[in-house]
Amino acid sequence: MFAAYAARLDKDQPLDGLELGERPEPEAPPHWTVVDVRAASLNHHDLWSLRGVGLGAGALPMILGCDAAGVDADGDEVVVHAVIGANGHGVGPRERRSLLSEKYQGTLAERVAVPAWNVVPKPPELSFEEAACLPTAWLTAYRMLFRDAGARPGDRVLVQGAGGGVATAAVLLGTAAGLRMVVTSRDAAKRERALALGAEEAYAAGERLPYRVDAVLESVGAATWSHSVASLRPGGTLVLCGATSGDAPASAELTRIFYLELKVVGATMGSRDELASLLAFLATTGVRPPIDATLPLDRAREAFARLERGDVFGKLVLTP
Q: Would you say 119 and 78 are in contact if contact means Cβ atoms under 8 Å apart?
């Protein structure tokens, strides 16, 4: 079958390790199923994998991709939950949690094998392309907002780094749920696009806000950490899902955190049940993930290059 896979790892030139070509057909052990992929989407996780983060040379060649929607062995339209081993379904009960394309072959292929537990019915209201955007960035944003931050209608939530996958999802989900979403970005065009998606206000990165917020969603890391902590009201919550600018801020802001009794919560992906809830939320509200472009799988190198340049607003979708 045709696939996009990591053949080599290169932390400086990640695309040098990307190959497009034939790979073996997936095999489904007991309690697994094979999904015919109709659409898959890219995440920065795929670029990090090519750099060797979370993926070792001993696992190569590895088909990339975490997100997909397709048709399972029973002919049902499904969305793939990318977290393998979180609860023992289809794997050993003590197996460490991983994402597709770390230990098990990923979704950028014509077919992918996953535990049967990891397929979730796709609502008919969503296209395969739309559904394929959801299992990583959108699921992470959903968990950050509604479980980890505990945001409620009327709460004001700051999202650092408008334009990123998690940030875009958070603005759309939060607005639909009655939250007052505020964003930051260095890029004026990205701030404008966030406002068009429903953000209440947009500020330049690091700009002091005229008020304190109830929660902050943080994925930028070192560059925005102090601003995030300073923007919270007493007792507020900072939810962290990434650190694209580095994980060692100049100041940990420990005094402010303990004195104002702030909460700091880590988030990675979400559960299968949360993915099902996210799908129902979109089917009910009409919210849809913005898709920057849909390309055939044999143009995956073009899509990866755009992702690496940051020349994207919304998701890049690949169709086998």
A: yes
Rounded Cα gap, residues 244 and 122, in angstroms: 31
DSSP label of 209: P
DSSP secondary structure, 243-309, as one string: -TT-S--S---HHHHHHTT-EEEE--S--HHHHHHHHHHHHHH-----EEEEEEGGGHHHHHHHHHH
Please tell me the distance from the alpha carbon of residue 123 to that of residue 128, in angstroms, as a whole number: 10
- Classify 38 as helix, strand or coil: strand
Report the distance separating Cα 140 and Cα 170, nearest Å.
9
Cα 251 from chain centroid? 27
Spatial distance between the Cα atoms of 297 and 311, rounded to a whole number of angstroms: 19
Is 0.85 surpassed by the pTM of this model?
A: yes
Helix (H, G, I), strand (E, B) or coil at 150: coil
Beta carbons within 8 Å of 319's beta carbon, 6+ residues apart: 38, 39, 40, 128, 129, 294, 295, 296, 297
CA dist 230 and 129 (Å) reads 38
- Retrieve residue 313's tokens: 């607003």
Residue 143: CB atoms within 10 Å? 23
- In this prediction, residue 278 carries a pLDDT of 98
| φ, ψ of residue 128 in degrees (nearest 5) | -60, -40
Residue 90 CB neighbours (<10 A): 21
For residue 150, count CB atoms less than 10 angstroms from its CB and return exposed for 0-12, middle for 13-18, buried for 19 or more. middle
The dihedral over CA atoms of 3, 4, 6, 7, expressed in degrees to the nearest 10, equals: 60
Provide the 3-class DSSP secondary structure of residue 50: helix
Residue 33 has pLDDT above 90, yes or no: yes
**What integer is the mean pLDDT of 100-114?**
97
